[in-house]
Amino acid sequence: MSLAVKPSLPARRLHVITRGCQMNVYDSARMADVLAPLGYAPAAGPDEADMIILNTCHIRDRATEKVFSELGRLRQVKMARAAEGRATILAVAGCVAQAEGQEILARAPYVDIVFGPQTYHRLPEMVAQANRAAGAVIDTDFPAESKFDFLPDAAAPQTAGGLTPFLTIQEGCDKFCSFCVVPYTRGAEASRPAASILAEARRMVAAGAREITLLGQNVNAWRGKQPGGAARSLAWLLHALADIPGLLRLRYTTSHPRDMGDDLILAHASLPQLMPFLHLPVQSGSDRMLSAMNRRHSADDYRRLVDRLRRARPDLALSSDFIVGHPGETEADFEATLSLVRDTGFAQAFSFKYSARPGTPAGGAPGQVPEPEKDRRLQSLQALLREQQAAFNARCVGLTMPVLITGPGRHPGQVMGRAPYLQPVHLVGPAALIGQEIPVCIAAAHTNSLSGVLKEKACA
Ligand code: SAH
Ligand code: SF4
Ligand code: F3S
């Protein structure tokens, strides 16, 4: 009997450049998984790569212009390789590809493939087509099928953070906030089935994951189906995930205040694996602005929600997103945002100047706020948020907290970890601790990190 010899695939190299949110980080890793069976392994850099994917973000600023300047640089790489007789497939993925696919093909004819966030399971076909055809391949459908039904099992470790991977459970958005492109680039809200999420989580844990962050544009809008047809919520899913042996910690992001159900609030009280840190964007503290933004909740609704969360989990720390200078925002509206920040107290937050996005309701709205005014408001909001972050980190000093050791530290003999509140923690300790959750006494606070000592040694 002769054994069939598997034809060996040509060794090819892939380089993926990722911009934008954590969902893009997850997608980039999955694109690599889809291409691995074709023989693509990671390249050391773009000039080593037979295929380059630029995974783009469209959320703010001059997103499209940035993509074109980045593509200009990649064109040079492609030309230099061509001069050496080496071909390069150049692909543009993600939210700019979805929104501006045709413009990319028109303005950057050296791009071979353009595809959106919902079609990358079809990459092998696109690559085959690009190799065959002259002219570019474009696939920016919102297909009826879900990519999750077609993606191969994720390779392990699934992302650079093998111990702390992301897992996409929900995608898209039906909220249509006035300022935001996501509903147009990612499509309608869609939940991934529980069985597929649980299977991926088990594989991640088997490959070494200790903390999983569930991802979705509106992660708390996740819905599953019970066998009888009744709906299951994110709280149910968190409980099911918490039953996986070896999975020590759970997080979920990003949540919309309107979708924080009672059972999800309760999960913060009853699930020790659920970390006491929640990213809950509010955008503004002015009811007038919240209504113009189509957020469909008031500033007091947010305050009440935070109270209920803190009653469920008294040590819960909060993070948020803010936009200053949305069309129509007055000084009084901005002051209302500062009050909400003072009332709530955030452990960290992201704040942005409103950036008009083509095709969104606010994009062409009257009352656009002048740029210098937006700058001034952003600086004053960020100063307050920095103060709150420093105060929060300072309050951690002297506490003993469970820290997940994630890797080697900056100096020999040191390791790095992640606190429940997401700050990086520096400490002296052996590399053998990597992958373990251990009690650490926090000795000092820095701007964006903490340092500590192993609890058995000493405590401040
Ligand atoms: N789904 C998430 C937000 C995703 S976008 C949510 O609803 O909370 C991340 C953040 O980018 C938003 O929370 C918002 O603060 C900011 N953002 C979105 N569009 C923006 C725009 N046009 N200008 C400035 N910031 C924007
Ligand atoms: Fe954008 Fe609003 Fe949807 Fe968040 S909820 S993705 S801000 S439209
Ligand atoms: Fe950017 Fe798309 Fe994420 S616009 S923030 S990459 S969903």
Indicate the proportion of strand residues. Answer: 15-25%
Largest sheet: 6 strands, parallel
Shape: globular
Distance between the termini: 71 Å
* Number of H/I helices: 12
Q: How many E strands?
A: 21
Structural class: alpha/beta
Q: Can you offer a commentary on this structure?
A:
There is one protein chain. It contains 12 helices and 21 strands. The strands form 6 sheets. The chain has a 6-stranded parallel beta sheet, with helices on both faces. It has a 5-stranded mixed β-barrel with strand order 17-18-19-21-20. The chain has a 3-stranded parallel beta sheet with strand order 7-10-13, with helices on both faces. It is globular and about 60 Å long. The protein is of the alpha/beta class. The structure holds S-adenosyl-L-homocysteine, iron/sulfur cluster and FE3-S4 cluster. The site of S-adenosyl-L-homocysteine (SAH) has 17 residues, from strand 15.
Chart the SSEs and their pairings:
Elements: E1 12-18, H1 22-35, E2 40-42, E3 51-56, H2 63-83, E4 89-93, H3 94-107, E5 113-115, H4 123-132, E6 137-139, E7 166-168, E8 170-171, H5 182-185, E9 190-191, H6 194-206, E10 211-215, E11 224-225, E12 231-232, H7 234-242, E13 249-253, H8 262-270, E14 277-279, H9 287-292, H10 299-312, E15 317-324, H11 331-344, E16 348-353, H12 371-396, E17 400-408, E18 414-418, E19 424-428, E20 437-445, E21 450-454
Helix pairs in contact: 2-3, 7-8, 11-12
The structure holds S-adenosyl-L-homocysteine, iron/sulfur cluster (SF4) and FE3-S4 cluster.
